[in-house]
Structure formats: structure tokens, C-alpha cells
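Incident log, support desk, overnight shift.

02:14 A customer reports that sequence design results differ from what the structure should imply. Their input is reproduced verbatim below. On-call engineer (initials T.W.) acknowledged and began investigating.
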């Protein structure tokens, strides 16, 4: 399995680290990282955004390549809520 990123200077690479904002892949809860790897094993992650709604935490994951799923919305427990 691979989850890789080629981050531009103005974007935060989810796997490689980066400059401005976002979440590093290594900083994700294990269940969220596992969901990404299971549902998109060959897709390149472009950006991960952490979203707080009250006490709940969600992760909006955008993929760089043209894979079937270009975006995933995942709960902190790893539940895949939606994908586009």
C-alpha cells in the first residue's frame, strides 16, 4: 500500500510534511489512517484538513490523482462518512 504526496510550497503535504496548514498523515488517528489506506491504497493524498464540530472531530481528505474517490470525509473513529 502507498499513500504519497508531492506537496507544493503553498500546500501541506499530508504524508511528507509541508509549509502552511493541514494535518500530517503521521498525525492522524490510527483508525483514520487505516481507512485511507484501505479505501484508497494507490491514491496520492494531496491534503488533509481536520474539522471540529462541537466535540466531534472529522477529517476531510483530498486526493491528488484521478482515482475514483477524489475526496473522503472520515470520522475520528475511522468511519467513512462520504467519498466523492
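02:41 Re-run completed on a clean worker. Output:
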Amino acid at each position: 500500500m502507498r499513500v504519497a504526496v508531492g506537496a507544493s510550497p503553498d500546500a501541506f503535504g499530508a504524508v511528507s510534511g509541508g509549509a502552511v496548514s493541514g494535518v500530517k498523515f503521521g498525525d492522524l488517528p490510527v483508525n483514520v489512517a487505516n481507512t485511507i489506506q484501505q479505501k484508497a491504497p494507490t491514491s496520492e493524498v494531496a491534503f488533509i484538513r481536520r474539522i471540529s464540530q462541537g466535540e466531534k472531530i472529522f477529517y476531510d481528505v483530498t486526493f491528488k490523482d484521478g482515482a475514483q474517490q477524489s475526496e473522503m470525509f472520515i470520522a475520528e473513529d475511522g468511519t467513512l462518512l462520504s467519498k466523492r
